[in-house]
Structure formats: C-alpha cells, structure tokens
Automatic annotation (TrEMBL):
Cofactor note: Binds 1 FAD per subunit.
Site (Electron transfer via tryptophanyl radical): W286, W339, W362
Biological processes per GO annotation: nucleobase-containing compound metabolic process; response to light stimulus; response to stress
SUPFAM superfamilies recorded: Cryptochrome/photolyase FAD-binding domain, Cryptochrome/photolyase, N-terminal domain
Record's protein name: Deoxyribodipyrimidine photolyase
Keyword Flavoprotein: yes
Lineage of origin: Bacteria, Pseudomonadati, Bacteroidota, Flavobacteriia, Flavobacteriales
Keywords noted in UniProt: Chromophore, FAD, Flavoprotein, Lyase
Domain Photolyase/cryptochrome alpha/beta: 3-133
Provenance organism: Chryseobacterium soli
Entry-linked Gene3D superfamilies: 1.25.40.80, DNA Cyclobutane Dipyrimidine Photolyase, subunit A, domain 3, HUPs
Cofactor(s) required for function per UniProt: FAD; (6R)-5,10-methylene-5,6,7,8-tetrahydrofolate
Tree of life domain: Bacteria
Length: 435
C-alpha cells in the first residue's frame, strides 16, 4: 500500500489559490482529495430541496472535472467526519491529513475530534489559514484583547495588512494520487433533490465594484456583488477579493473586513451563537407572538418593503443587504420578536448563510450585539422605502400587490410599535420610568 496524504475540502471549494491544498501537494506524498457530506450538518436541513447543498454539489462536480485533467478524482463520502476518517485510515496508509481552518464552534469541535483520532494512529493533521486574511489573535488591541468595535478593528486590520497577505500559492499538480476517474456521490444518495440553481464561476465585476459605495443601498439597482455564497463556500478566495477591492473600492474592502470582524467575534466569544453579546439584553421582554412571526416569514406584514424582502428570500434564497436590515429591525422592534427567531429563519433560507455574519448582523439589528445599533434606532420602513426605493421598483418586483396590503393588512402602526419597543427595551435594561 502506498503512503499517501489526504486533502479535505470544506469551505474552500476550488483548486486555485487554495492554501491547504498547496501545502498537501508539497508533503512528499501523493495526495487524495476528499469531500465529506457531513451528516451532522445535512440532517438538520428539513427541506431537501436546498439550493445550498446543490451549489456545493455542482462546485464539487467542477472540481472533479478539473482533477480529471491531472489523472485523479475527488473522493466523496456521506456520513459523520470521524466515522469517515476511521474508514479511510483503515483502507489507506495515510501519513497526513491537510485542510483549511474553520472557526465556527461546531467545526472546531469536529476538527479536534478528527485530529485526536488521527494523531492516535500516528497520522499528522495540518490545518491552514485560508478563508480570512487575519484570524484568531492576528488583529487585536495593543493589550492583546480582541476588538469588539468595528471601526478600530478595521483601522488595525488595514495597518497590519501587507502585500504578503495576498500572495498567490502554487499547486504542484504532479503530486496528486493517480486513479481511475469516478463521478462524485449523487444528490439523491445523500437524500437531497436537484434544484433550479445553476452554478456559475464567481467573477469580480469592476462595473459593479467601482460604484459599490454609491449604489449598494438601492435594492432595485442590483448593484451588489452576489459573492456571499462564493465566499461562504470558498469558490472564490478572499485574497482574490481583497486584491481587487484594494484597486477598485474601499467601501467594498470595508465590507470584507466586516466579514472578518464577525468571524473573530464568533471565535473569541462563541456564546453569541445562543446568547446576546451584551448580556443585559437577555432581559428584554420579547412578545414572541407566533402568528405575527408567521406573517413576517410569509411577507404579509402590510409594510411593502418588508414584505418584498421576505418574499424575495422565500422565492430565491437571497435578499438585498439594506432590506435585510429593514426586515430585521421590523421583527425585533416593531413586533418585539426575539432576534434568535429571525436569525434561525434566515439560517434556513439564505443561500449565503454564514453563522458569524448572520448572528452578528441580527444582534446588530436588535441592539444587543457588539458594536450594535443603539436600541432606540428603529427603522421606519416607509421612510427607508422613500430613501432607497422611491420609485418602488424593488417593491413592485417582489410584492406586486403592495397597495392592497398597505390599506388592508398593515399589522401595526409604526409610531405605536416604536414607542412600545422603546418602553420594552428600557424596562429590560432597567431604565423604564413608568411613563
């Protein structure tokens, strides 16, 4: 049996500019690339018509076709990662396993278990930084504590950055383990259905990014990059994006830094998965009316832009970022429904769902997160519409019966809801004066 190395694809679904894969191919052993459809994750997905799973599957098919050119193929598995590695270790003379690091609490636990098993079998486990420019403690305050406010974090990020952070990596294609070509496991075999999603290689469009700062808040313009899903699953490298942003638009660079800010918050404060970053906000007396939550989910609140956003989400798995802020503010402030309900609904629906960003942005909207909007900021959906969709192009596209909903189905009056929210927050935070 030949001694081999394994490269384990996860959130890095590309061959080019892949740090861990490059390192594996320099290990001195032939490399077998693998992907595991993780049962611990997939079993939580109730809807088997899931575009994200299909996106991953199509991205893997593309990788497999590329690997064929190098005389190898991608080996795919379905199950719990630890069980899969026990199986692989019994079938091959594995010397080392390579991958790129993940920072979510469940992923850290998974990798620790796999590493401990492999080390117990005298197999090395190597992981590398790949999905971020800076990780863990690489951007901290001068006293080495993590930042909890974005602006100073971003300033330190930019000060720490150097061209070396976006250097290219070389792949030695000759070091792949040579094998007969096989197709990857089918969607049906892992219990999922083919969807209407068509995988396309992510591209950086200067026509959009050059004007990102001016156009990004107007949902009807469709002037955002749509790279959220590509960054989530690593079909594009963050280094490629940062290099482009440095040349074209600082506002977009700042958005990429926000992504890393929330990732380091999740890494340093894993409690935020279930709890408010600001603990005193656990005392907010949420109303949590299930019928009202259902109306919000379906996009039948009577507020045109809120309903347009929720209908876009339900139909496509996408929602414009400005509209995400509006619908999140509406749920937490107008309806006084716990941010965790909205966060969980987005997690089920968003194509680009990423735990750190989703959690961070929901806590921002609810006022309970790090560097959050103050609790007394309550977006007025009508004013937001006038400002960002004055011709109602976005509203009409996703909510064509909007006029009827305004007059017949508006759930709650804005002024009433705002005052109710302020009183509830003051009470929860111990500031309520009874008036």
């Amino acid at each position: 049996m030949k001694e081999i190395s394994i490269f384990w694809f996860r959130r890095d679904l590309r061959l080019e500019y892949n740090t861990g894969l490059s390192e594996a191919l320099q290990s001195g052993y032939q490399v077998i690339p693998i992907f595991i459809f993780d049962a611990d994750i997939l079993d939580q997905l109730e809807d088997k018509y899931d575009r994200r799973v299909d996106y991953i599957h199509q991205a893997l098919e593309k990788i497999n076709a590329e690997l064929k050119e190098f005389g190898t193929n991608l080996q795919t598995y379905h199950g719990k990662p630890l069980d899969i590695f026990k199986k692989i270790e019994s079938e091959y003379k594995v010397k080392s396993v390579y991958c790129n690091r993940d920072y979510e609490p469940a992923a850290v636990k998974r990798d620790t278990e796999v590493k401990e098993f492999l080390n117990g079998k005298n197999v090395d486990f190597f992981d590398y930084k790949d999905q971020v420019i800076f990780e863990k403690n690489e951007v901290t305050k001068d006293n080495h504590e993590p930042y909890t406010v974005y602006t100073p974090y971003s300033k330190k990020w930019k000060k720490t950055f150097s061209p070396e952070n976006i250097q290219t990596v070389v792949l030695n294609h000759k070091n792949f383990h040579q094998s007969d070509f096989n197709s990857i496991i089918s969607l049906k075999e892992i219990g999922f259905e083919k969807t209407d999603l068509k995988f396309e290689l992510p591209t950086l469009e200067s026509a959009i990014i050059d004007h990102y700062d001016k156009n990004r808040d107007f949902p009807a313009l469709d002037a955002t990059t749509h790279l959220g899903i590509a960054l989530r699953f690593g079909t594009i490298s963050i280094r490629t994006c940062v290099r482009f942003a440095l040349k074209h638009n600082e506002t977009w660079l700042n958005e990429l830094i926000w992504r890393e800010f929330f990732m380091q918050i999740l890494f340093h404060f894993p409690k935020v998965v279930k709890k408010c970053f600001k603990e005193k906000y656990e005392n907010i007396p949420w109303r949590n009316n299930e019928e009202e939550f259902e109306k919000w989910c379906k996009g039948t609140t009577g507020y045109p832009i809120v309903d347009a956003g929720m209908r876009q989400l339900n139909q496509t798995g996408q929602m414009h970022n400005r509209v995400r802020m509006i619908v999140a503010s509406f749920l937490t402030k107008h309806l006084l429904i716990d941010w965790r309900w909205g966060e969980a609904y987005f997690a089920k629906k968003l194509l680009d769902y990423d735990l750190s960003a989703n959690n961070g942005n929901w806590q921002w909207a609810a006022g309970c997160g790090c560097d959050a909007a103050p609790y007394f900021r309550v977006f007025n959906p009508d004013e937001q519409t006038k400002k960002f969709d004055k011709d109602l192009k976005y509203v009409k596209k996703w909510n064509p019966d909007y006029e009827k909903s305004i007059f017949e189905e508006r759930m709650v009056d804005h002024a009433f809801a705002r005052n109710r929210a302020l009183e509830a927050y003051k009470k929860g935070l111990g500031e309520y004066n009874g008036r």
